[in-house]
TrEMBL record:
<feature type="transmembrane region" description="Helical">
    <location>
        <begin position="75"/>
        <end position="92"/>
    </location>
</feature>
<feature type="transmembrane region" description="Helical">
    <location>
        <begin position="20"/>
        <end position="39"/>
    </location>
</feature>
<feature type="transmembrane region" description="Helical">
    <location>
        <begin position="287"/>
        <end position="305"/>
    </location>
</feature>
<feature type="compositionally biased region" description="Polar residues">
    <location>
        <begin position="416"/>
        <end position="429"/>
    </location>
</feature>
<feature type="transmembrane region" description="Helical">
    <location>
        <begin position="203"/>
        <end position="221"/>
    </location>
</feature>
<comment type="similarity">
    <text>Belongs to the glycosyltransferase 87 family.</text>
</comment>
<keyword id="KW-0808">Transferase</keyword>
<feature type="transmembrane region" description="Helical">
    <location>
        <begin position="173"/>
        <end position="196"/>
    </location>
</feature>
<keyword id="KW-0328">Glycosyltransferase</keyword>
<feature type="transmembrane region" description="Helical">
    <location>
        <begin position="122"/>
        <end position="139"/>
    </location>
</feature>
<dbReference type="Pfam" id="PF09594">
    <property type="entry name" value="GT87"/>
</dbReference>
<keyword id="KW-1133">Transmembrane helix</keyword>
<keyword id="KW-0812">Transmembrane</keyword>
<dbReference type="InterPro" id="IPR018584">
    <property type="entry name" value="GT87"/>
</dbReference>
<feature type="transmembrane region" description="Helical">
    <location>
        <begin position="146"/>
        <end position="167"/>
    </location>
</feature>
<feature type="transmembrane region" description="Helical">
    <location>
        <begin position="99"/>
        <end position="116"/>
    </location>
</feature>
<protein>
    <submittedName>
        <fullName>Glycosyltransferase family 87 protein</fullName>
        <ecNumber>2.4.-.-</ecNumber>
    </submittedName>
</protein>
Amino acid sequence: MLLRQLEPRTARTTAEVIKFALWPIAVMTVLNRVFIKAVNGFITDDFRPVYQASLDFLNGRPVYTANFDSVDPHYLYYPSGTLLIAPVAWVHDYEKARWLFILLNAAAIILAWYLLLRLFRFTVNSVVAPVLLLAMFMSETVTNTLVFTNVNGCILLAELLFLHLLLKRRDLWAGLALGLSLAVKPTLAPLLLIALVRGQWKVFITALGVPIVLTAIAWPMSKDPEKFLSHTAPYLFETRDYFNSSIPGNGEYYGLPPWLVWGIRVGMGILVALSLWLLYRYYRDDELFFVCTASGVLLAGSFLLLSLGQMYYSMMLFPFLMTVVLRNSVLRNWPAWLAVFGFMSYDKWLSERPGWQHWGRDLEYLRITFGWGLLVIVIFCVLGERYLAAKREGRLAFGIDPTWFKPLPSGAHAITTDSPSSANGSATTVAKPISVE
């Protein structure tokens, strides 16, 4: 009986074909990334300074002693983050502690994958499940998070918990999830704006309270907590010219004049602000679309515009990218996915051919920045085009979704008129409310 249960079945539908084909590929890709690529490691080792700082913290030694003149990974977490991560040093063998941290982040990413499915009302049995799992573990952001062994997998899990709980109006718990991530690093801090505009004030109690409480606990336990403020914090506000894909980071690397860097930052910042305004004005009642799309705009904008943006931060954009399954998604066009390729692909564009090295190096270094930038532009253009089309057709009162996939609300109808002011005399469709007296 057991053997009959294990007997492979022949797919009878297209969905079954896709699932039968992709599940083995997805599972083997996960195993490869976790147990081969991650365990093998790379010259970049984000875990070593974390482990050393945790060891120093537990043994009462100074923690914030990094030499910022080198390009090696530095320990930059707040005292509250040190307190949370310190247990990794309970494993006295560095290599085993690193393997444990890899497994912790892999488990967090897989749990985040499941929560992402449930957020968009898919099950593990759906055809979306293996497609999403494969896409996540083939990406640069997941692969290098595991290979470099950093904490971003846990930050992604915190983001998914926050979004789930925020949409369920479990504000204190949503703040707790976000607060734990903010206690380590500020990557998800822009998401507080979503809670602010939705009027979910209780989120701030725990989102800000958790880091404050953990800092109050960690401060007297640390040997040199004041050095975080005097030594580490100033470095966090500097723009470094290596391993930095933000606009100011590339400006430093390529020696661009400050006026040009600031001009690009201000221009892109305006696109981010206008996109957020359009989302809030016309989509805030479409909660899933609004929350996930606004999170993508905020996070992509922060990676692009602030002092530090690294490629593997793009993991936090997974909830936004998943909105492609929604009918009114802003990602249903090819430029959006050209942008995604720029910051998600694990491909390398460096070339050793004579005369090609310069072009290959620029392509490799700039594709992340161009990807984030193109994504911001695409979001603005899609929302802006919807707004202008709705304004032309006189239906702004009913939202800006195109009429071809969203019927007009009850009490409104579209009428076709020949506009005498039209240059070509073509007919235009205008939405007008039906007068009921």
